[in-house]
Specification:
By secondary structure, the chain is an all-beta fold. The protein contains no helices and 11 strands. A hairpin with a 6-residue loop joins strand 4 and strand 5.
């Protein structure tokens, strides 16, 4: 079983940047496909980005494409979400998630496909 801890959230002005980190413990992260999700107040949790075990493949929600970048450092057991050109509508609690997968498995884009979740980190973008 893997444990996930997010960090890096905070308050930023519109147009600014933040880098979220998701540190894993308990298992080697290279065994897991990873994803980032977010949940704004009063809204359902939504997909943000996904990355394959090796980091070779990534996928983004249309709302963040071109502004956010997901990456991973398996040697450090950490996944990142670089967020640039932030908008007020990006305000949410951001969660990282993990699931075991075969090397050639497709990327996972829905929350019910993930088995392990962090506690979340708050991102607030002011206008």
């Amino acid at each position: 079983q893997v444990q996930l801890v997010e960090s890096g959230g905070g308050l930023v002005q519109a147009g600014g940047s933040l880098r979220l980190s998701c540190a894993a413990s308990g298992r080697t992260l290279s065994r897991y496909a990873m994803g980032w999700f977010r949940q704004a107040p009063g809204k359902e949790r939504e997909f943000v980005a996904a990355i394959s075990q090796s980091g070779a493949r990534t996928y983004y929600a249309d709302s963040v494409k071109g502004r956010f970048t997901i990456s991973r450092d398996n040697a450090k057991n950490t996944v990142y979400l670089q967020m640039n050109s932030l908008k007020p509508e990006d305000t949410a609690v951001y969660y990282c998630a993990a699931r075991t997968a075969a090397t050639a498995a497709p990327l996972y884009l829905t929350d019910y496909e993930y088995d392990y979740w962090g506690q979340g980190t708050q991102v607030t973008v002011s206008s």
